[in-house]
């Protein structure tokens, strides 16, 4: 009897969640259709469509700040903008994926309670999920262009766009992607790939990218001044630039290191992958 | 002609007041005077036969003089060599001093940076530590702690690389003891492969013993054993 009740309750919860999800999607579609019919910019509709949003002022907006985000199941997306505060939008990830072909992002969540928590202390903003049971969320954060990031996503991916600063990013199962970066990256993923597009590689800090099973792909302009050192166990290495093999001989014997050297080699990027592939791409050849 | 007359004529000649006759008289007398002097010198040299002792003395004096010259040359050379040596030694000592100074500075900076919140700075610390001629003492311990406890996989990976490059026994012990601590398969695998690449047959046995005696879960135990026995 008790088992039947428990099973019944579980089925009820699942059906509720299912219907909520269906409602959300219907609501999202309605809002998007309405936005398009009204001739609105879909991106404005997109911001309205967020499940939850907040603006976080900085104590010293004229100074460079830092953002820390730690999620268990949510995807993280950070965009560098010309605003001098931090804004957060939380979306339903399933809807984002569903409406991705429309280049639109999803709509309102029925539940209006805050889904995340945040603090701001002397330009350091920290964002965490309110509950580690939340799944299927996209936390999209707009920050000033010049910002430092420390992003941790256990199960999901991390994306960073248009930033000038230092990025620390780690994910166990997700991918890590950074686009149009001027700065330095320390990134690691066990299962996901790491893909990056540097506009400038900062010589101030070392860059280090490591993955166990994922590929590592970097787009680096020919004008960069960088020394890329690649350690790879099994996968192949492809490079649009000339690659050198340096033989290290010390007390422990010999080991070969693959290197791609550009310009005066002021900056350094270390790439390590156990089973993934490594690709170094010259953007001028792939336009 | 008296000497006084001759002197007067010479004085008049220098003043440009002599007549032609007086000049003839003067030159004739001078030539006579020189011839007389030559004659006197010849007679003197004939009448004074130089003794062998004089020759010997002269030779000794000349040799002494040559010796003096050689000594003088030698002394000058020694001074030049000493100055050169002093310059070289000063340069070497200064370089050593400077290098020791730079190493010390690098060591201190590495220790300070290793405590920073930013993974970029901690990586910078390890980059600086890798450039030290020897990784030992406090720096070695700090890198060992970073390998075991740092929250960032890349920092732990860089710590492993710094220790493996240092190639000293203490670093090897730290690496061996940290195999079990590592959550990251990437680092675990790198350490095991590095340790097995060392030409020491005991390492494999020691590693297997460490794993055997550990209380880690079976799945992880099996994974490390596979790495070692592959």
Beta content of chain A: over 45%
Choose one word for the global shape of chain B.
rod-shaped
* Structural Rg of chain A: 22 Å
Percent of residues in helices of chain A comes to 10-25%
Separate helix tally of chain B? 10
Count of helices of chain A? Answer: 3
Greatest interface (CB-CB under 8 A), with counts per chain: A-B, 26 and 24 residues
Give the overall silhouette of chain A: globular
Order of helices and strands of chain A: HHEEEEHEEEEEEEEEEEEEEE
Structural class, judged by helices and strands of chain B?
A: mainly alpha
Strand content of chain B: under 5%
Nearest-integer average pLDDT of chain A: 81
Query: The biggest beta sheet of chain A, please?
Result: 19 strands, mixed
Total E-strand runs of chain A: 19
Number of domains of chain A: 2
Indicate how many domains the architecture of chain B comprises.
Answer: 2
Distance N terminus to C terminus of chain B? 128 Å
Q: In angstroms, what is the radius of gyration of chain B?
A: 47 Å
What labels describe this entry?
heterodimer; A: 287 residues; alpha/beta; 19-stranded mixed beta sheet; B: 230 residues; mainly alpha; 2 domains; rod-shaped
Notes on the structure:
The complex is a heterodimer of chains A (287) and B (230). Chain A is an alpha/beta fold and 287 residues long. Chain A has three helices and 19 strands. The longest helix of chain A has 36 residues, at 2-37. The N and C termini of chain A lie far apart (67 Å). In chain A, 39% of the residues are buried. The model of chain A is unreliable at 13-23 and 100-112 (pLDDT under 50). Chain B is mainly α and 230 residues long. Chain B has two domains: 3-47; 114-229. Helix content of chain B is 82%, strand content 0%. Chain B contains ten helices and no strands. Chain B is rod-shaped, with a radius of gyration of 47 Å. The chains are: A alpha/beta (287), B mainly alpha (230). At the A-B interface, strand 9, strand 10, strand 12 and strand 18 of A face helix 4, helix 6 and helix 8 of B.
